Amino acid sequence: MELIYTNANYKELGILRNPTLDLEIGKYDVATNDFELSLDMELWDSSFTYGSLFYCEGTEYGGIVKRIKVDTANDKITFKGYTFRGLLQKEYVQPPNPTENAYLVLNCGANEALNTMIDERFDDLFVVDDIQDVSIKVDYSVRDINLLEACEKVLNTGGARLSITHKEDGRVHLKANLVKDLSDKIQYDKNYQLNMVVETADEQYNHILALGQGELTDRIRINLYKNAVGNWVEDESEAYYKGIYRKTYKYDDTSSETREKLMENVEKKIEELETTDSLDISFESDNAELFDIVSAKENVTGINFKQPIQQKILKINNDDVDISYGVGTEMLPRQKNETVINSIGTKYYNNLIQKPKINGVEIVGNLTTKDLGIDDSSVNLEYANENDIDNMFYGIKRS
């Protein structure tokens, strides 16, 4: 993979020799969208400096230099900065004429929406392609949010993702492309030697105390309880979870002037509070893009997921190139780990008649395979019964 570099005026100068690169791109608030690039001092062209670009032509891989570190002891010079995607998250989208418009309303073609938000930023380094194309429609109202986050949220309403490519004209081209669902074609499990973290859902709230407007005895108050079939009811006698099993969330909404309005708002809040199982995996592939959907199955818990790709990490060490992808809602580890077995929720753990085991050793607290003196390949998880799995958490990271 050839990395082209420029001077601070974006004039192309040549190809970087024997670079070491660690670059990450991905979803806002998930990926760092930055890079670290090192060169031998003797191979460094001094025109490659603060404000210079580097890129792999025809791809998103690249960025702008913002920091330089010189290591004279090892004759190395290191450059750090933002990727092209990272530059987007340095800006915010505001409403036009904020005193008159509460939102920037985008109800149009996806590329037109991108062009409106980019709005000639970044000294014309960025350009949006196919502005007149209306094959992908979006509908979203933006107010004071990060530019990269805004691009993602706006395009999501049209089932699209942001495509970024540096091209031969020296500019970074942006375009909306439809998200591809590859889950029927690409499914990963432990046989792929993945790094995988599976977490069953945290214990959910089963009691909501909602408070609206008013003072003391005049304050609007609603109590909601989960019944035996998982529905929310106001009659406490129908509540299924009681005593130590009750988990209460206090919802304070002083803007609700009526009981009806408070009920409407608390229903929306309940949707936010509901949690589900989660899956984080990293894998290697060359036929998927950011936000495309792949599927994976973790065989211990049996959890099966369809998730969008949220991270992409490029590592170059001289001629060695490694590209990995991350799926999930949390940052993925960049180093190898032992298998980790966590048990949380002590009230569930203490109530289990038979404790879960690993290779016959009872799990108490947090253990690793290293603690138990066993090899990852010999891990054998045992549960008391299927219902216990719902009340325990096991994080599994395989090297």
What is the tally of helical segments? 7
Percent helix among the residues? 10-25%
Strands, count: 29
Strand content: 35-45%
Low-pLDDT segments, ≥5 res: 190-201, 329-359, 361-399
Rg (C-alpha, Å): 26 Å
Short overview:
With 399 residues, the protein is mainly beta.
Tell me what the structure shows.
With 399 residues, the protein is mainly beta. It has 7 helices and 29 strands. The chain has helices at residues 84-88, 110-118, 147-156, 259-273, 346-351, 369-372, 386-389; strands at residues 4-6, 12-15, 20-26, 34-40, 53-55, 62-71, 76-83, 92-93, 104-109, 126-128, 137-142, 145-146, 160-166, 172-178, 187-188, 195-199, 207-211, 221-226, 232-233, 248-252, 278-283, 293-297, 304-317, 320-327, 340-342, 357-358, 361-362, 366-368, 381-382. The strands form 7 sheets. Strands 1, 2, 3, 4, 5, 6, 7, 15, 16, 21, 22, 23 and 24 form a 13-stranded mixed β-sheet that branches. A 4-stranded mixed β-sheet has the order 19-18-17-20, with helices on one face. β5 and β6 form a beta hairpin. The longest helix is centred in the middle third of the chain and has 15 residues, at 259-273. The radius of gyration is 26 Å and the shape is elongated.
Give the key terms.
about 400 residues; mainly beta; 29 strands; four-stranded mixed sheet; disordered C terminus; about 35% strand
